[in-house]
Amino acid sequence: FSGKYFLVTGASSGFGKTTSILLSKYGAKVILVGRSEEKLKETFNNLTGEGHIVYPYDLENLNDKDNFFDEILKKNKKNFKFSGVVHCAGLHEFTPLKFINLNKLNKIFKINLFSSILLTKFYSFSENCSKPGSIVFLSSVASESGNVLLSIYGSAKAALNSVTKSLALELADKKIRINSIISGHVETETGLKV
């Protein structure tokens, strides 16, 4: 990891924060992405080494026109190649069936699934992203076992597991590894709200 650049989403708390700190201890330069600039700065202050970047961004606003990786470099006036992505950003909401609507579906799927696909697309086509490279998605045990009030979240994560397999096969010739980690319940800030 030494001297390599990794993008970590959801870096303001939980898995993303812990992953960022660990990567920095191994010598990596970390680009911290999350909604809260204040919380990202807290993570930043716990990193080892130099060259890390705080990039506040709400992945719900991700569009399919601008390559996210190229935009980060452009806005920060930097020139380096990303070696990989750890996509920990996620939206976990308890939603009874009677309150499910298209807005709720779109919001949860945008963060948990659509952003994963778009980040992979951007990584694969950007000249600023290394090949070989590695992309890791954070999934959930809710994708494999039904839970009351978690039908949207669980189905979005189940779709993420499926798309991981397909994208891994599609991008194997570009030497981009894609994996999904199916996590159980962990005591993070989000997990403690359960």
Characterization of the model:
With 194 residues, this protein is α/β, with parallel strands linked by helices. Helix content is 38%, strand content 21%. It has 5 helices and 6 strands; from the N terminus they run βαβαβαβαβαβ. The chain has helices at 14-25, 37-44, 68-76, 102-125, 151-170; strands at residues 5-9, 29-34, 53-56, 82-87, 129-140, 176-183. α4 packs parallel to α5. The model has no long low-confidence stretch (mean pLDDT 94).
Short recap of the structure:
Helices cover 38% and strands 21% of the residues. The chain is of the alpha/beta class.
In terms of topology, how is this protein built?
Elements: E1 5-9, H1 14-25, E2 29-34, H2 37-44, E3 53-56, H3 68-76, E4 82-87, H4 102-125, E5 129-140, H5 151-170, E6 176-183
Parallel strand pairs: 1-2, 1-4, 2-3, 4-5, 5-6
Helix pairs in contact: 4-5
Key features of this structure:
single chain; 194 residues; alpha/beta; six-stranded parallel beta sheet; 38% helix; globular
Main structural class: alpha/beta
List the total number of helices. Answer: 5
Listing every helix as H and every strand as E from the N terminus to the C terminus, the arrangement reads EHEHEHEHEHE
Poorly predicted ranges: none
Radius of gyration: 16 Å
Instruction: List how many beta strands DSSP finds.
Output: 6
Which range best describes the helical content: under 10%, 10-25%, 25-40%, 40-55%, 55-70% or over 70%? 25-40%
| Average of per-residue pLDDT values | 94
Largest sheet: 6 strands, parallel
Strand order of the largest sheet: 3-2-1-4-5-6
Shape: globular
